[in-house]
Every structure is written in structure tokens, then in C-alpha cells.
Design goal:
By secondary structure, the chain is an alpha/beta fold. 19% of the residues lie in helices and 39% in strands. The chain is globular.
Length: 160
């Protein structure tokens, strides 16, 4: 049985179209890249969770988040801290400068299982040899993002 979990992430887009991603190696689904974000705390809205997680994982407190700028929602399964979960995520879209994370985030990254980070250009995302990104539709979603309504991807299976 999978435990339901609500989460929020932020697709931070640089002026050149690159998106900031973290690298994970999950015990159930393997290596993948995903945007900053995580689970909602009790009483927290999705937007509040996205902002909190962005600061905790990148040190960026100046990225403008807007509840109306949603890229997509999706649901997927994975194992978190040894517990199988079915996670429903909302991914917010936000502009930001292309820069490194701020401050010493090594303890936060270790606790969240973050192994690495980098900016992915649209060409990087489209490379068929690249490691998986979550959601798998991310390259198409970002290419169509400007001016488009949020997309509900529904349940998307992810596999190693």
C-alpha cells in the first residue's frame, strides 16, 4: 500500500530557457532529475511549500512565485525514506537568474537525497542519452510553457 503525499515544486527558468534541476538516486526508481521542492507541511498551502522548499534547497529567497503560474500537476509512485508513497505534485513556473545555490546547503541536500544540481538547457532536456527527468514530459511542457494553461498529467508511471 502506498501512502498519499502532497508536494510542490518550482521550475526556475533562466532567461536563456535553462531550468534548474537536482539529481537523485532513489531506491525504487533509480537516478532521475527533478526541480526544487518537496512535501507540504501541515497547514501549508502548495505555494507556501514551494517557496519554503526553494529557499531550503537553493538559498534563493528572491524568486517570484505566483499561485497562477502553474506548469503542471502530476501523480507518481516512489519510495521516500523507505516508505512507498503515491505523490501528487503541483509544479509552479518562476523566472530566475542563472546562478549557483547560495550558502552551505550540504546538510539539507544530504537529508533530501540530493546528489548534484545543474542548469539544463532545452537541448540538454531533449538529449535522448540524458538521465531521466521528472516529470518525463518536462521538455515538452517547458517548450510550450509561455502563455499556456497548466497541464494535468494525471498518474505517470516512473521506472528505473
Amino acid at each position: 500500500m502506498r501512502i498519499p503525499r502532497e508536494a510542490a515544486r518550482v521550475a526556475v527558468l533562466a532567461p536563456d530557457g535553462a531550468v534548474f534541476l537536482f539529481r537523485y538516486d532513489n531506491e525504487e526508481v533509480g537516478v532521475h532529475w527533478a526541480m526544487p521542492g518537496g512535501g507540504l507541511d501541515p497547514g501549508e498551502s502548495r505555494l507556501q511549500a514551494a517557496a519554503r522548499e526553494l529557499v531550503e534547497e537553493t538559498g534563493w529567497a528572491d524568486v517570484p512565485l505566483d499561485a497562477d503560474r502553474v506548469l503542471c500537476t502530476w501523480t507518481h509512485d516512489y519510495t521516500r525514506a523507505g516508505v512507498p508513497v503515491r505523490q501528487h505534485e503541483v509544479i509552479f513556473l518562476a523566472p530566475g537568474p542563472r546562478r549557483d545555490p547560495l550558502g552551505d546547503l550540504s546538510a539539507s541536500h544530504a537529508g533530501d537525497g540530493i546528489l548534484d544540481w545543474r542548469w539544463w538547457s532545452p537541448a540538454d532536456l531533449a538529449d535522448p542519452r540524458a538521465e531521466p527527468v521528472w516529470p518525463p514530459q518536462l521538455p515538452v511542457l517547458l517548450a510550450d510553457a509561455p502563455g499556456h494553461a497548466p497541464v494535468d498529467l494525471g498518474y505517470v508511471p516512473v521506472a528505473p
